[in-house]
Design a protein that fits this description.
Distance between the termini: 23 Å
Order of helices and strands: EHEHEHEHEHEEHEE
Strand order of the largest sheet: 3-2-1-4-5-6-7
Low-confidence stretches: none
Mean pLDDT: 95
Number of strands: 9
Strand content: 25-35%
Number of helices: 6
Radius of gyration: 16 Å
Largest sheet: 7 strands, mixed
């Protein structure tokens, strides 16, 4: 499997998918190429983005499979057929089972709108505002069997401003996501990311 062959998993609008496509077009993915979109919601707008970008899409409805494991087995078969080496979760709203985790251990990454381990799970931006923190941010991390519990690859902080709403803070967070995620994917494609237990080294 080559880390330069990338599959993006998404369930919604696909704004991070679009940012990765733009980075690829600009030659900023370290030689990596997005070879496949996987979505558990065929009607999601990200599918239209993939079609417009000329990226093949695997669009599945999990309820049509007998179990989460059977659903993921179908995905794994397609990933292997395409020799995918890196899975990039970009708003993919499903927990992953060992069927996908085991063959792609150390090759699945996710982006989360907080400085993990703070504010894991859903509505991280709302959690940060409710808690009253002065700093929040963005984390790119490896995916394991938990909810946003995998080793941290990269983080970037964002100040919470007086009067921020969930919408205004989300807008600034998204802009950071669109910059940070392509940088991390490029580092993977260039073979610069090393995982040692819970510690990650990103070589320059």
């Amino acid at each position: 499997m080559s880390s330069s062959r990338i599959a993006v998993f998404a369930s919604g609008q696909g704004s991070n998918f679009a940012a990765l496509i733009e980075a690829q077009r600009a030659g900023q993915l370290g030689g990596g190429g997005i070879e496949l979109l996987v979505s558990d919601r065929p009607e999601a707008f990200v599918a239209s983005r993939a079609e417009a970008a000329g990226v093949p899409a695997l669009l599945l409805r999990p309820k049509e499979f007998g179990s989460r494991e059977l659903y993921e087995a179908k995905i794994v078969a397609e990933l292997k057929r395409r020799d995918i080496g890196l899975i990039v979760l970009a708003g993919y709203m499903r927990l992953i089972t060992p069927v996908l985790l085991e063959p792609y251990a150390g090759r699945i990454i996710n982006i989360h709108p907080s400085l993990l381990p703070a504010f894991a799970g859903k509505d991280a931006i709302g959690q940060a505002l409710d808690y009253g923190v002065k700093l929040t941010g963005v984390t790119v991390h490896f995916v394991d069997g938990g909810m946003d519990t995998g080793p941290v690859i990269a983080q970037r902080s964002i100040e919470v401003e007086a009067g921020d709403t969930a919408e205004s803070l989300a807008e600034r967070i998204h802009q950071v996501e669109y910059e940070l995620y392509p940088e991390v994917v490029a580092a993977f494609a260039a073979g610069k990311v090393e995982l040692h237990g819970r510690h990650v080294i990103v070589r320059q």
